[in-house]
Amino acid sequence: MTLRLIATDLDGTLLDSTGTVTSRTRRALDAARARGIHVVPVTARQPIGLRAIAAEAGFDGWALCGNGAYATNLVDGRMLFAEELPPETIRTLAQALRASIPGLLFASVREGGETFVAEDGYAEIADYSDHKRHPQTMGGVPLDQVLAAPTLKLVIRHPELSPGVLFEALRDLGLVGFEATLSGAPFVEVMAEGVTKATGLARLCEHLDVSQSDVVAFGDALNDVEMLRWAGHGVAMAEAEDVVRDAADEVAASNDDDGVARVIERMLG
After folding, report:
1. How many CB atoms lie within 10 A of CB 77?
2. Domain boundary among 192, 211, 233
3. pTM for the complete prediction?
4. What PANTHER family does the annotation carry (predicted)?
5. In whole angstroms, what is the distance from residue 197 CA to residue 83 CA?
6. Could you read off the pLDDT of 91-104 as tens digits, one per residue?
7. Are strands 153-157 and 188-192 parallel, antiparallel or unpaired?
8. pLDDT beyond 90 at 245
9. Which domain range does residue 245 map to?
10. pLDDT tens digits, residue range 59-69?
């Protein structure tokens, strides 16, 4: 392959366990950029969470947020595309899931990822690390307001039940019209039908005139699987689950051992 684009997940992949970019990783990313290689964060985060580390990582161009639902330019705020879930779909989903699991809480990501609309009670069980925004800024509205407008990502969580349990319950409903996944965060994430990190990356690569075969992608969680399979060379992190490792062409060292940087250094020769 001729390496032309590096697509990397952030949490558990590019960032170490303290949530920072190590000096070795930054040097590797800078070396790639110096050769004209695009370096693109592909994340479940919203722009607010990307800005927190953009300077550390040197991100200064396109980014894929919301698990591939939308592409935003971190410098000028341009949106290349945005795929939203319609209100009728999320209302049907929420009604069916709440009938089987009491106590669920929902939040909606809107308006280019800048607006976060949380149900009453959501902020009380949220931490800053969940969405890279302070819970006291989340407010709280009735559920019908959360579900009243198109969303880039619907967040579903429970005070006691794990995301894995909620994810399986959602799949067991047999509903269609959306894409659900897990990122390692304490909630289930729901995007528009067919939206994954792979579909977002494919659209961005088309815009940049980069061939699929010239992309290396890094990830560690369920929401990275499609991207690792799609890329010309997919790299799973050492501590990724089996389903993620099986989707990759290579397993790198852990995020705390500069796994991404080691692979980039080798590929740059």
Report:
1. 10
2. 192
3. 0.94
4. HAD SUPERFAMILY HYDROLASE-LIKE, TYPE 3, PHOSPHOSERINE PHOSPHATASE
5. 12
6. 999 999 999 999 99
7. antiparallel
8. yes
9. 5-82+196-268
10. 999 999 999 99
- Running DSSP on this structure, what letter comes out for residue 185? S
Residue 88, both tokens? 């009728």
C-alpha to C-alpha distance for 211 and 1, rounded to whole angstroms = 10
**CATH label of the domain that carries residue 225:** 3.40.50.1000
**What's the chain's Rg over C-alpha atoms?**
18
- Sign of the CA dihedral 211, 38, 74, 122? positive
d(CA 76, CA 175): 38
Into how many domains does the chain fold?
2
Helix or strand run (H / E) with residue 77: none
Hey, what amino acid is at 98? R
Angle between helices 163-172 and 87-100 (to 10 degrees): 110
Same domain, 99 and 38: no
Q: Are residues 134 and 40 in the same domain?
A: no
Q: How many CB atoms lie within 10 A of CB 133?
A: 18
* Cα–Cα distance measured from residue 96 to residue 90, given in angstroms and rounded to the nearest whole number: 10
For strand 38-41 and strand 5-8, is the pairing parallel, antiparallel, or unpaired?
parallel
- Distances in Å between the Cα of 45 and the Cα atoms of 3, 108, 111, 169 are 25, 13, 14, 24
Q: What are phi and psi of 42, to 5 degrees?
A: -125, 105
3-state secondary structure of 184: coil
Mode of pairing for the β-strands spanning 105-110 and 153-157: antiparallel
Q: Token digits for 58?
A: 């040197």
**Residue 209 token pair:** 């005139």
